[in-house]
Amino acid sequence: xxxxxxxxxxxxxxxxxxxxxxxxxxxxxxxxxxxxxxxxxxxxxxxxxxxxxxxxxxxxxxxxxxxxxxxxxxxxxxxxxxxxxxxxxxxxxxxxxxxxxxxxxxxxxxxxxxxxxxxxxxxxxxxxxxxxx
Length: 133
Fold this sequence. Notes:
By secondary structure, the protein is mostly beta strands. The chain has helices spanning 8-14, 17-23; strands at residues 43-47, 53-56, 60-61, 69-70, 79-84, 91-96, 102-107, 117-120, 125-129. A six-stranded antiparallel beta sheet has the order 3-4-8-7-6-5, with no helix packed on it. Strands 2-1-9 form a three-stranded antiparallel beta sheet, with no helix packed on it. The longest helix has 7 residues, at 8-14.
């Protein structure tokens, strides 16, 4: 998959301040505040930075964590995983494989069939409704 190569100034012009803080500066939104946390639409969640299809709504579930949670990405090659030792803990960061935008983290406490919980910031996502596609 090709990698996007934009300057931080280009990203600032294209993203909202909240999207920039999360996608480019590895921020996070407060738990239970994002619009996709309890969202139940059918369709595809894409990267808010570049439009890459990241998660199908069929893999979304309510983890109770306060962030949208998925048990698998749309395809293994659409995300990259990195070790993250910030905030005094070791976690696995998830980024968009195309633009490098920070999405959230993945944890090994999700449901079957994968056992993974991709805990993703709403601000890093856009949604495309199945009915409108």
